[in-house]
Amino acid sequence: MPLTEKELLERDAKRDIGAELLQSIRQMKAGNRGRVHYASISSVTEARHKVGLSQAQFAALLGVSKRTLQDWEQGRREPSGAAKSLLKIAKKRPDVLREIFS
């Protein structure tokens, strides 16, 4: 249950923010940290990054809408057969895609 405004003010009045920050800095310097999370990127995003284009540019290059590309990158939809072929080329030979479509 969330705290009321009065409870928040009472809690905050007792805090020493400077001491909390100093403690956090000491913990970081000592190598103490919380969990580290790694986000995996989709193969579509990887292909786009290798070609070095924005979402809008890459979508135009593939002949799809930016929204469709976002759906592919976020795993909501799968590319069609032709798009999959272009994505494979983009991942393996981004220079070829840049050369052909520039």
Automatic annotation (TrEMBL):
The alphabetical list of record keywords is: DNA-binding, Transcription, Transcription regulation
Q: Which GO terms describe its molecular function?
A: DNA binding
Q: Sorted alphabetically, which PROSITE patterns does this protein's record hold?
A: HTH_CROC1
Q: Where is the HTH cro/C1-type domain?
A: 44-97
The record's InterPro entries line, in alphabetical order, gives: Cro/C1-type_HTH (IPR001387), HTH-type_reg/antitoxin (IPR052359), Lambda_DNA-bd_dom_sf (IPR010982)
Is Transcription regulation included in the keywords of this UniProt record? yes
Q: What Gene3D superfamilies does the entry give? A: lambda repressor-like DNA-binding domains
Q: Which residues form a coiled coil?
A: none
Q: Kindly provide the name given to this protein in its UniProt entry.
A: XRE family transcriptional regulator
Q: Which organism is it from?
A: Nitrosococcus oceani C-27
